[in-house]
Every structure is written in C-alpha cells, then in structure tokens.
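Q: What residues go here?
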C-alpha cells in the first residue's frame, strides 16, 4: 500500500469516527454515550477510536468541531448565487435566505444546537469552537457578497458587516421563536414566508434608492 493510500485511509477512518461520534452523542447525550457504541456506529474497532482520538472528551470536542465546520461549508455554498444574482436580486436573496433557513433547521443543525445547550456547562470551550466555525465566518462571507453588490450599485449597504448581521438576525430571530429554539419542526412553506419577510425588510433598509431609478 502506498503512503498516500494509507494516509487517505486514515483520514477516511477518522472522518467516519467523527461522524459516528456525533450521531451517538446527538442520540444519547455525552454522559450516556459510550466509545464502543461510537466504534460500532463508525464501523471500526474500539481501539481504532482511541488510536485516532485519545479519549471520550477529546472525541466529543472534535466531533462538535467537525460537524460545525461541515454545516458552515454548506451555508457558505448557498451564498454563491449572490456572486451573480441576475436581474432579480430580490428573488435571489429570497432563495438564498430560504436555503439558509432550511440548513438551520435540518436534523444535523438542530442536533448540534441541542448538544451545545446541554453540554456547554461541562465543556465551556465548545461554544467558542462552534462559533469560530459558524456565525462569525458566515457573516463575514455574507458581508463580502453584500459589499460587492453595493459596489455594483445593487444595494446601498454602506456598512456591509452590519447589513449581513441584520439580515441574519431577521432570518434567525423569528425562526428560533417559531421552532422553540429548534425543538419544534417547521414546514417548508413557513420557512419561505420567513425568508420573504426578512428579505423585504432587509431591502427596505439596504436596497437601492428607487427614487433615483430612471
């Protein structure tokens, strides 16, 4: 076996362990989860789990980090249409907003939030881990898109960072209330309504000045 193949296999095995660990922690909680169950979920031997991640606490933190990073990657991907929004910026913003809401309410995201709420007193640093791989980076990426749209004359967001922060607040504030902090399912039609309302309010504050339109 080549060195690169062995390295790839080790990375894949580690990824399987982290995904299995998150699944078990989300289902059982930290205290009730056991390493053998995680090994079974990942399809590896128990000693393999310890070879990759030394103990249960380390495994938990790395599983949180990996899940938060994967969730962030998905969110960054749905911002891509803002790079070339076409003629109907309003519709593109609604589509992006709806996609962000769907990601925020999927099972993985809800499970991640539940774990953060339940285990943050035991592991205070997991909140910092999650935030570093979540809201701050998403807001920066969104602010960059909004800044480019402003330069193109599509928005008048003199402060793109603030504009991004406010758009996310318009989306997630009502969502957290309606889902009881992610504990109540919400229909896709309602997500679309929330997205439309958020974008309408956002554009009323940051949209182009229509009075200057010929």
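A:
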């Amino acid at each position: 076996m080549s060195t690169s193949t062995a390295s790839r296999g080790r990375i894949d095995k580690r990824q399987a362990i982290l995904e299995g660990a998150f699944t078990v922690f989300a289902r059982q909680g930290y205290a009730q989860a056991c390493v053998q169950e995680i090994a079974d979920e990942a399809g590896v031997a128990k000693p393999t789990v310890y070879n990759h991640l030394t103990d249960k606490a380390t495994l938990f933190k790395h599983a949180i980090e990996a899940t938060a990073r994967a969730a962030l990657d998905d969110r960054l991907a749905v911002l891509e249409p803002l790079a070339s929004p076409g003629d109907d910026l309003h519709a593109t913003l609604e589509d992006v907003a709806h996609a962000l809401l769907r990601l925020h309410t999927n099972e993985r995201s809800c499970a991640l939030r539940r774990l953060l709420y339940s285990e943050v007193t035991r592991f205070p640093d997991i909140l910092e881990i999650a935030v570093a791989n979540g809201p701050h980076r998403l807001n920066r990426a969104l602010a960059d898109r909004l800044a480019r749209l402003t330069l193109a004359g599509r928005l008048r967001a003199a402060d793109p960072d603030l504009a991004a922060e406010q758009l996310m607040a318009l989306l997630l504030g009502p969502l957290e209330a309606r889902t009881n902090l992610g504990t109540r399912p919400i229909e896709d039609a309602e997500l679309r309504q929330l997205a439309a309302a958020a974008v309408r309010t956002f554009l009323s504050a940051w949209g182009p000045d229509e009075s200057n339109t010929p």
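A: Context that may help when evaluating the design: Residues 1-6 have pLDDT under 50 and may be disordered. The two ends are 68 Å apart (CA to CA).
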